Amino acid sequence: MSEEEDDIVLAELDDEELTLQMHDDLYDGLSEEIEEGVNILLERGWEPYEVLTRALVAGMKVVGDDFRDGILFVPEVLLAANAMKAGMAILKPLLAETGAPRVGRMVIGTVKGDIHDIGKNLVTMMMEGAGFEVTDLGINNPVENYLGALESDDYDILGMSALLTTTMPYMKVVIDTMVEKGIRNDYTVLVGGAPLNEEFAKAIGADAYCRDAAVAVETAKEFMQRKHNQMPA
Amino acid sequence: MMTDPITEMLAKKGWLLADGATGTNLFNMGLEAGEAPELWNDTHPEKITALYQGAVGAGSDLFLTNSFGGNYSRLKLHNAQSRVRELNRIAAEIGREVADTAGRKVIVAGSMGPTGEIMQPVGTLSHENAVEMFHEQAEGLKEGGADVLWVETLSAREEYLAAAEGIALAGMPWCGTMSFDTAGRTMMGLTSSDMVAMIDKIAHKPLAFGANCGVGASDLLRTLLGFVAAGAAQPLIAKGNAGIPKFEHGHIHYDGTPELMAEYAVMARDAGAQIIGGCCGTMPEHLEKMRAALDSRPKGAAPSLEAIAATIGPFSSDSDGTGNGPAAPARRERRRGRR
User: Of the N and C termini of chain B, which has fewer Cβ atoms inside 10 Å?
Assistant: First the structure.
């Protein structure tokens, strides 16, 4: 490796170059560089929300797109998500202080009877990478867990995951219970997991099936956009 | 060097019929979702006997034990992590008994699934701990009388290598398949040719390797062609799902008919597989048709991708990341060369 290649000093880049460099650093999963970049932008007077959206979320979008397109795979995405998390750790308290607009809030969990969690964890990380706040209920969740979590705070999205053909029908139990309680339309319900498909999601009354974590993020953003558009001006 | 039963049987017959689904069959026998199937080795041995007999009765030359999730990490989810050795031993013991009373030579293959954890450096599971988990399970299966060990549904290179090491510590012969379920690659991004290259570097080599599960039988056949193209040196294994799960009237069923699985079996052998079986959704009636088709039809030329798609169904993605078919898009170039 030559000296020149190693030579980039983040603090010497102008704002635009630095954000682009941070997108690259996220892509390569470089946590320390992301922390450094976040701090530099804050020192230059950027609003925390600007740092989040323009440097981090925009960078993770590239990662998500390449994951969706089969160019990056789980290991690279996990590394990128870790780098994102490092940056978020700095921004989170500042975002709360400044009352920045929120991207969206989600409850997620693997359904009752199912103990698989790699896919769900990946969705959680990618959603957080996109700026969403995610409450992860873990594995093996009965309907009460989902409803309890939704009631406990102000959420926009419910995400359910199942990796078994025997557990995926439980998603319908959760959705049916939401309908019974009259809260189904208060939330966007996204479902995912290896054995699922679009047809199944429709059959059980979910809003959308998400083939992978990248699609989950795109779909969640889309629904949040629709929600904002419906709000009175 | 003493030869192992798989190599011996392959030398005699040229190909073997493996078994079908374990989970799907057990659920039909009343296993509740979320229950650990391995606990049934202890509490419902008669059902495990019936599971194995289903495969043997349908003509399988080899069946896998009910121990897929029998490693420390998976059993811990059921608070049964202290029973790894015991539950694996019983799984193999029941298998031994079924095989030894079958009236013909049947191989007991000790199933070993993934740990379910992501390994370092990306995840948290260390190489040493993964090796020990596979080793512990291998010892239990060995103790129960398994003929070979059978690692399946893996997606990470690191984990496959850890399994090979753990099994080497137990001194057992083994086979190992991975699941290519993400645009023709494993979840962790391995292509069929990556797997061939990986096997080449393993010290305690598997007797045979290949693919299982994934998405539908078409993708699995494409993966097989990829192994052959990459110059696989060991016999190849094909254990594909019986189609794709469909949700109808509140129940899930796999849409692959026994007839379709018979076509898949013949195509798998034509594509170069020597050990052919099913995975999720593959019931004894599928195995019977597969056996009949393999017995009655001669091995033919390797099928083209077009022929696979026409006979078995469309692929889940255009490319599988190898040179087979249209080129896969490449990773972005870094704008700058840092590091």
Answer: N
Nearest-by-CA chain A residue for B333: A24
Q: Which amino acid appears at position B94 of this protein?
A: I
Q: How far is B244 from chain A (nearest CA, A)?
A: 8
Residue-averaged pLDDT of chain B:
92
DSSP B44-101: -HHHHHHHHHHHHHTT-SEEE-S-TT-SHHHHHTTT-GGGHHHHHHHHHHHHHHHHHT
- Does B338 contact A72 at a Cβ distance shorter than 8 Å? no
- Chain A closest CA to B30's CA: distance in Å? 11
Q: What pLDDT was estimated at residue A157?
A: 97
Contact (CB<8Å) B250/A200:
no
What percent of chain B stands above pLDDT 90?
Answer: 78
Contact between chains at A114 and B77 (C-beta distance less than 8 A): no
Segment A178-187 shows an average pLDDT of 97
Compute, in degrees rounded to 10, the torsion defined by CA atoms B164, B165, B171, B177.
-10
Show the domains of chain B with their CATH numbers.
5-338 (3.20.20.330)
The pTM score is: 0.87
> Are B339 and A1 inside 8 Å of each other by CB?
yes
Kindly report the backbone phi and psi dihedral angles of residue B280, in degrees, each rounded to the nearest multiple of 5, phi listed first: -45, 135
Which pair of tokens denotes residue B264?
């898949």
User: Model confidence at B336, in pLDDT bands (50, 70, 90)?
Assistant: low
